[in-house]
Amino acid sequence: MKTKTTMRTALWIALTAAVTTPGWAQNVEDIVRRLEANRIHGTSRAESVMTVQDRFGSRESTMISYSRGQDESLIEFTSAAERGQKVLRTANEIYLFYPDAAELIRLQGAALRESMLGSDVSYEDLTGGRTLLDTYRVTLEGTERVNGRATWKVSFEARRRNVAYPRQTMWIDQEWYVALRAEQYALNGRLLKEMTADRVEQVEGLWIPMRMVISDVLKRDSSTTIEIRNIQVGLPLRDDLFSLEELSW
After folding, report:
1. pLDDT tens-digit series, residues 133-184
2. Every domain of the chain and the residues it spans
3. Is the confidence at residue 2, as pLDDT, over 70?
4. Alpha-carbon separation of residue 207 from 32, 40, 146, 210, 214 (angstroms)
5. What b/e sequence results for 77-105 when a residue is b if at least 16 CB atoms lie within 10 Å of its CB, and e otherwise?
6. CA atoms within 13 A on the CB side of 52
7. 124 falls in which pLDDT band (50, 70, 90)?
8. Are 212 and 230 in contact (CB under 8 A)?
9. 47/59 Cα distance (integer angstroms)
10. CA-to-CA distance for 154 and 133, rounded, in angstroms?
11. Which of 46, 57, 140, 245 is buried deepest, with most CB atoms within 10 A?
12. Could you tell me which CATH number the domain at 41-247 has?
């Protein structure tokens, strides 16, 4: 007959094996896949307000954004100061259009790290292409509660060097599969940016963060809030919407 100590030891071994087998790793990847399923839409159109708070005060910009899959997005600013400015992201490039100068600029190199309209969001943050699992190795660090919600804490280690953030940590809601909190790090482990999502809504069966606060910790007293006022997913979009010709129209 097994003693209680032996039975507890056997149970501990079984639990340890369960979290170190490939099945556990697959579960972590499934979590990330479901996270991306909420983030990447077949098509979408959103009306948003971006509020930048820094040592100079607070300022708002309004915008309409369109997306198709993970590779294509278009942002058009509608606020008076920036009206007509556009940002186009394709699979491999980012372009800016300034209507006053009728100028089209292709961003590359260090220009990608510049902030968009002085916000805590860089143009590099908009780059797409590969999925998270293509870009990072993922590890489940455990579970934690964020704003009263149960989350998985997942760490991301870059598979290659030329990524904006070599390391990331995300706290992914266990029901919504939305990152309620994220931290982004340099290769040396220095914290670069923090993100929180404090309002999440269900749209067409998808859980979408409707209000996010991003902070570039390298900037002093700076934060950027992006609030989605209206969003549609799965709507038809013109084939030429994400073209250079349309960008300068």
Report:
1. 999 999 999 999 999 999 999 999 999 888 889 999 999 999 999 999 999 9
2. 41-247
3. no
4. 14, 11, 16, 9, 19
5. beeeebeebbbbbbeeebbbbeeeeeeee
6. 18
7. confident
8. no
9. 17
10. 12
11. 46
12. 2.50.20.10
Determine the Cα angle at 200 with ends 228 and 57, to 5°: 50
pLDDT tens for 172-194 read 999 999 999 999 999 999 999 99
Give the amino acid at 25: A
User: Which residues, listed in sequence order, are joined to residue 158 by a DSSP beta bridge?
Assistant: 136
| 185 alpha-carbon distance from chain centroid | 14
3-state secondary structure of 95: strand
Question: Mean pLDDT throughout 208-212?
Answer: 96
Closest by CA to 235, choosing from 34, 66, 78, is 66
Task: Give the Cα separation of 108 and 57 in Å (integer).
Answer: 30
Task: Kindly state the tokens that stand for 217.
Answer: 């910790």
Compute the half-sphere exposure of residue 115: CA atoms within 13 Å on the CB side of its CA.
16
Residue 190's alpha-carbon distances to 112, 120, 162, 217, in angstroms, are: 20, 17, 17, 10
Element at 233 (helix H, strand E): strand 223-233
Ordered alpha helix ranges (H), 97-248: 132-135, 244-247
pTM: 0.84
First vs last Cα of the chain: how many Å apart?
A: 81
Whole-number Å distance between alpha carbons of 90 and 146: 34
According to DSSP, the residues that pair with 168 across neighbouring strands are 156, 184
If 0-12 CB within 10 Å is exposed, 13-18 middle and 19+ buried, where does residue 189 land? exposed
Report d(CA 178, CA 206) in Å as an integer.
Answer: 10
CB 32 within 8 A of CB 138: yes
Whole-number Å distance between alpha carbons of 94 and 128: 10
